[in-house]
Amino acid sequence: MERILSGIKPTGELTLGNYIGALRHFKDFQNRGDVYIFIADLHALTMPIEAETLRNNSRDIAAFYLASGLDPKRCTIFLQHTVPAHAELNAILQNYLYMGELKRMTQFKDKCSKMNDNQIGLGIFAYPVLMAADILLYDATIVPVGEDQVQHVEITRDLVHRFNSRYGEVLVLPRAEVTKVGARIMSLCDPSKKMSKSDPKGDIFLKDPLSVSRKKIMSAVTDSGSEVRFDPAAKPGISNLLTIYAALKDITPQEAEKRFAKFRYGDFKKAVAEAVEEELGPFKARYEKIIADRSYISVLRDGAKKASLVAAKTLRRVQKAVGLLSVDE
Ligand code: TYM
Fold this sequence. Notes:
Blueprint: E1 2-8, H1 16-26, E2 33-39, H2 41-44, H3 51-67, E3 75-79, H4 85-93, H5 99-103, H6 106-112, H7 122-125, H8 127-136, E4 142-144, H9 150-167, E5 175-177, H10 210-218, H11 236-249, H12 253-259, H13 265-293, H14 296-322
Parallel strand pairs: 1-2, 2-3, 4-5
Helix pairs in contact: 3-13, 4-8, 4-14, 8-9, 10-13, 11-12, 11-13
């Protein structure tokens, strides 16, 4: 039986990239195994964030999880900080990853390249250690993520090999699973950049009114020429829109390209905007209802209990392996 684990960090407003690369797929994993989906709120503290913003973003992600079709009867949904074993395992595992390898992480380099050492918190540097703890606590075999997080799953795998070769088969080896279409959705105003939570113009936010997402798509940067063709190197803007369309329709970008072969850019963009509206319209309606009835609260409370039981067992196994003396009978 597969164990599946993933999470989203409540640092900013969720984007269509988060939706296509990760969120949209989580529900399907409920047919493939035991699913743990959490809100990575401790990770959100690795960059400065207002307390109220963090709380609101966390509520939003909980509601988005439920709106996406995750069913609390078939999976475990929880807030990272409500399972103390994450921080406890982090304290142990930080001794098995090294400064050299952490310094090489792309996310760390992207976020901190323009900061000096007195601005960079220890948390952002040690980010992959906590992420490894998240994954390993649940003996996860599959970690569904977008392309930008694969490197963190890879370093988790390195850690497992290192740890197990010293202590025996204690930790389970996870692998990243990346969606075939849409693992890296690009910014609508600069298709050389990833769509990220911090770029209001180039992003479609899941909370944008549909009229706003339509406008953003209609004014997305396109490429020279007039042909709708999938060619990420020569036509990054059009290829990004084809990818968005294809991902939402569960087809390949090449199939999408065929559909729009005779279209002008404007009509093509209209079709993409419609596909986004068709998908996000009902999703947003479900989200609004969940935010209003606050049903996510009891889900998170129950999730914390269920997750804590599993996490505590793994933590004990690791404590024992490294030699932390147990005082239980
Ligand atoms: P986060 O919150 O940055 O992103 C959540 C998920 O969305 C994916 N994603 C994208 N996919 C396609 N195109 C994009 N433009 C795009 N932007 C983001 C991300 O790859 C991710 O899957 N470190 C994680 C959270 C985390 C986690 C974990 C995930 C903490 N612990 C353990 C899995 C397992 C993060 O910051 O994701």
